[in-house]
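Q: I'm teaching a short session on how sequence maps to structure, and I want students to see two examples side by side rather than one. Could you give me a first protein with its sequence written out and its structure tokens following it? Keep the formatting plain so it prints cleanly on a handout.
A: Of course. Example one:
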Amino acid sequence: MNFQLRVAVLVLGALWTASAQESASSQNIEVHATGRPVARVNDTVLTDGDLLREMFAIFPYAREHNGGFPKEMEPGIRDGALKMIIFEELVYQEALRRGMTVPDAKLQEAEAEFRAQFATPDLYQEFVHTEFHDSEEMVRQRVRRSLLIEELLQVDVEQKSTVSDAALKAYYDKNPARFEHAESFSFQTISILPPKTPDPDQLQEGRRRAEDALQQAKATNSYEEFGLLAEKLSDDDYRVTMGDHKLIERAKLDPAVVRALLALQPGQITGIIQIEQAFTMVRLNQHLPAGKMKFSDVKADLRTELESQKTNQLRAALDQTLRRKAKIEAL
């Protein structure tokens, strides 16, 4: 649980309230918070306001659609949000049952951090007025609640999710096939794309543009310089990622591209490669022969993956344990 993320959800809720009266598009479902109960967890009632804040955490782009959620996605978003607010309430109640507390200094620091998320004091006061009926004490209680949830999850989930170096190495040794890879290339492209059915003049103009682009590309001296040029000149979709295609297996590439790449050293650039009506130039970043990735090269990503899996397993187990001890009603 990330405290900054959870309090940010409150801000999203306030931003939604300010725009909820605007109309959503016909492809979106407009959702309003009315205070209607949606679930009861033991003696605590959760409302559609709690639900909506979590829906925005899951799908923040809804704010760009005037408070509307994509029609086909709304049921899944709603279901996921309901499960999350119930889980968090269960965790909060468990923290109280264990007698967990928040030191005053930590609470004050978190409150200051929360207020600092607002651009001006007036925006903060507007938020408190809209969401908490001008009650600073309600804000403080919500911040304290978030901190208690974070603390319990830190103890029961995060601290138990750590994967040791020995466990990582054992996984690597027991799953050798997973770390084998085919011959691959990492490269950037600049592509000039004439119309799909160009006439001779359009095809000639495309080649002229490609030759000019190649001259500029040959003058670049780094990944960044070539990438910025790709953003400026390239017509293909990879221009938004600086022309970067990352690692692609040899078998998935056009033979003409493979032949050109095999003649390069990293950092070098091909001439113009014409594939059907497209004119492309390629900068080789890496040629990776077939083989097995070294443990040192995969260790960091593998740790992230295995710890994420363990975190999800521990959270799911905690959710099941808390649900067995609680009375939960959908309203």
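Q: Perfect. Now a second example for contrast.
A: Example two:
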Amino acid sequence: MNTEQSERFLRACRREPVDRTPIWLMRQAGRYLPEYRKLRERYQMLELIRQPELAVEITLQPLRRFDLDAAIIFSDILPPLESMGVELKFVAGDGPVIPQPVRNRHDIRGLAQPEAEEIAPYTQKAIEMAARELAGRLPLIGFAGGPFTLAGYLTEGLSSRDFAHARAMMYQDPDAWHALMDKLSTLVGNYMQAQVRAGAQALQLFDSWVGTLGPDDYVEYVLPYSRRCIDMARSTGVPVIHFSTGTAGMLELIQAAGSDVIGLDWRVGLSQARARLGDGVALQGNLDPMALTAPRRLLRERAASILRQAGGKPGHIFNLGHGVLKETPIDQVEDLVEFVHQESERR
């Protein structure tokens, strides 16, 4: 693997020229890979995350199949909450479950404020191991959940379409809400800094559910805390990607949180996002994950459209608008990676 490829993703994050568009995929290590499914037959989700050797193995699995430009550590956004004293389970059919949701000031006061090295230490160890394995080959991305998304799961106890409990707390007890977000933003900021110390060369903040909010609520109840996390992460000197979904109507506010790269879902055109945000931030995305299940001709048309919208300018990282779906054919992923590299090299 040449030096150009090992630096391609990081150069794009810094809006520097690259030889071809870098590509990595959210959830690139996961259920669409048979080698991952074999491990899931033997281990529960939390076991895979808590055993660094297994987490590293899963991190490396897609790199053995595809010519990707970055790795992302295998983990989940919720295990760091355990360091605050939160019980977490992964239940088949329901996903992550928090048996005792945080619903009031008393619950919030009970949340511990851990030291950085106490936050998901197994993931920090996995990053250290994976970074050694990848040294000189590919950059490793670490990640964390955004404060709002973590608060949503904490207050609901499980995934939700509207996170009604979180939003009710904002309106009915804003002091409690701000106390919760203060604790969570401290947790996330410290955790991301710890990941860099362990060897991560870039970070992504997943605020997957912040699109449930309107712009005014985002500004008042979330933006200061997202900015705090990102400021703490950027102080390490590595690029930070800020990813959210359903936020096409407030991209400028997402930009105000201060990341180096903004990850886009597929509900906004890349060229439209660039026109609104200017050239001072890199963009990541934004193929609809379902396109990977489409006929190959259509898949390539959609990928080519995104590359055309990027226009060959510095500061574009090809990715999906969300994670790889479990139904995705492996050969489609291989074709997409090859097509993006070849097509962008010609531009």
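Q: What should students look for in example two?
A: Point them to this: Residues 174-198 form the longest helix (25 residues). Also worth mentioning: DSSP finds 15 helices and nine strands in the chain.
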